Amino acid sequence: MTNPPPDAAARRAIAPVICYPNDSLPAPDMQLLAAARSTARKTDEVLVPPRDARCFEVPAGHFFRITSVEGPQVGDLNLWNLHDLSERFYSGKTRALHGTHVTTGERLWSSFPHLRPMATIVADTLDWYGIDEYGGSVHDVIGTRCDPYTGNLLSGTQYHQCCHSNLTRALADHLDLSRAEAEAAVHDVLNVFMCTGFTRDTGQYFMKASPVRPGDYLEFFAEIDLLGDLSACPGGDCSAEHSSDSAACYPLLVEVFAPAKGALTGWQSPAPNGYDRSHGR
Fold first, then answer.
1. In this structure, is residue 209 part of a structural domain?
2. Whole-model pTM above 0.90?
3. CA separation for the pair 66, 254 (Å, rounded)
4. Does residue 142 form part of some domain?
5. Cis peptide leading into residue 26 (ω within 30°)
6. Do the bridges between strand 63-68 and strand 252-258 make them parallel or antiparallel, or are there none, so unpaired?
7. For a pLDDT cut of 90, what percent of the chain falls above it?
């Protein structure tokens, strides 16, 4: 390490600037969504088995809920435009706009060039958790998903029940794609129920036991027609390992709800981003 310059303390003391002040973001009408949700009826459900993944579809203007059942379990969520896999959830931009973890009233944003809300979080039974003494919080958009490539890099394993592989298999099966085609569409996730942060000494990504319990849920409003893919992580509650055949793992339940006709009067599905895509000279 180099010796600090004479003005090191002054450089460190410079106040931070928020990169993307979000006061001008289009705000969801939470009152309208709550009223519409109160009229909704369940139209579909999918049970995601432990150490596996399943796909589900949600029409624009419907709600979907991910619920912990049987035991504490985290999930890795991918989202796409149902009609165009090139428009997918953009965890990095969601993180830049909302922060490292998301909760009620915040949105999941789609990839360039679309950059529009895909889903709005309307309910979170773990919103009480906040940020703990270690800097940990719930529902992160910083972790990438457990994958077989990093496992092989670090320990030489050939593990196939990690979330990346689970998501790949489920998407391939749902759309009748080859696994190579499906893998190319799998992307960084929303870590549902996962409790994570960065260590304050080394800045490393950490996980700890999720506070989720059976009956806890995270619920969304679909802003566009969505294809979802959810993996019940092989790490269970991620208290010790995230790619493991020994961790206690449980299923996750996905339910879809349709509001009553007319309940969303005035709402419109967001258009793709208005940038002209000329990119200058």
1. yes
2. yes
3. 5
4. yes
5. no
6. antiparallel
7. 96
